[in-house]
Task: structure prediction
Amino acid sequence: MASTKDYLEYILELLSDIDTIEYKKMMDEYLLYKNKKLFGGIYDNRFLIKKSKSIEEYQLAEEIPYPGAKPMYLIDIEDKELIKEIIDKLVDNIWLQNFPVCDNIYRLKRIIIWTKK
Result:
C-alpha cells in the first residue's frame, strides 16, 4: 500500500519545528532528510526512523518498512518537541554510526591526501 500525500503533509506538520527537513518520493513512499542526511521515511502511512543506540532510551516500537528491510523505529507520538528531540539526537549521530572508526581514518587520509594535491 502506498503512502498518501495527506499523511506526508501531516508528518511534515509534526516536523515543522525542525529546520532543513526535506523529503523525496520514491516508489510511492517518502524518504525524509534533515541537513541532507537520511533519517527515516513514510512507509505504508507509518512514520519510521532509523534505529540508533543514541535514541534507544525512548523505547520506540520496531517495525519493518517493507519485506527484507532492517527494522526501524515507529514514531506514533504527536508531541512536536519530543519528536524534534529524538530526530535531532538521531541525525547528530547518523554519520558516526554508519562508519567504523578504521573506515573513518581511511577516509580522512584520502581526503587529506586529495586536498594536498
Notes: The two ends are 51 Å apart (CA to CA). The first helix runs from residue 5 to 14. The first strand starts at residue 21 and ends at 26.
